[in-house]
Specification:
Helix content is about 20%, strand content about 35%. The protein is of the alpha+beta class. The protein has a single domain, classed as Electron Transport, Fmn-binding Protein, Chain A (Pnp Oxidase, Chain A, Roll), CATH 2.30.110.10.
């Protein structure tokens, strides 16, 4: 059971090394999942691991994923659920040390484990698809045509309860050895951030349709 502030630490979410970088704070987990545009979903098919990039959306303590009804993993999920490992990573900076060994990355990442099941309730499925669109561009679901019956039938939505979850973070400068501090090599952090470029209208866009605020004002 969650205490309302943190996720429980369990055998599958406690790391074997650098434990000081790992936490279970719900707000920190939610922040990473909400900021990340893409996650990676890992599962096993015929005894072999598969990892696929996917869009995702968090609604409360549920993480929604989606794909074609013909996708192998999604077909497997329809038969009692699909055991998955979902990861989302944000790169905040390149950590450049004096030694090659101590180069690193400042990052925030989330790992969520569990069994993803198919969403069968029509209302939940529709709401989840709207959330998936809005997770990429907030407000976009209201600025586009919703899925019709044919599109809904061709789409499977999975839901993963957020129960076995951890967040891992690295911040700060490089950790050079004392013996390397006087080497004549620049050391520090090159910060990175995601910024949008100018919106590029579709070549077949009708004249007179202005760029909506949810596009021009997009940020992460």
């Amino acid at each position: 059971m969650m205490d309302g502030v943190t996720y429980p630490a369990g055998p599958r979410t406690v790391p074997t090394r650098i434990r000081e970088r790992v936490g279970y704070d719900r707000a920190a987990v939610h922040a990473v999942l909400d900021e990340a545009v893409v996650c990676h979903v890992g599962f096993v098919v015929d005894g072999r691991p598969v990892v696929l990039p996917q869009l995702h959306a968090r609604v409360g303590e549920r993480l929604y994923l989606h794909g074609s009804t013909g996708a192998r993993g999604l077909r497997m999920a329809a038969d009692g659920g699909l055991d998955v490992c979902v990861t989302a990573t944000l790169v905040d900076g390149l950590v450049l040390a004096r030694s090659a060994f101590h180069h690193s990355v400042n990052y925030r990442s989330v790992v969520a484990l569990g069994t993803a099941t198919v969403v069968t309730d029509p209302a939940e499925k529709t709401a989840a698809l709207d959330a998936l669109v809005d997770a990429v561009v907030p407000g976009r679901s209201a600025g586009s045509r919703p899925a019709d019956k044919r599109e809904l039938a061709a789409t499977t939505v999975l839901v993963l309860p957020l129960e076995e979850v951890s967040v891992k973070v690295r911040t700060g400068p490089p950790s050079d050895d004392d013996a390397d501090l006087d080497l004549p090599h620049w050391a520090g952090v090159l910060p990175l951030r995601t910024v949008p470029g100018a919106p590029e209208p579709a070549p077949d866009l009708s004249a007179g349709i202005a760029v909506p605020a949810h596009v021009s004002g997009w940020s992460r």
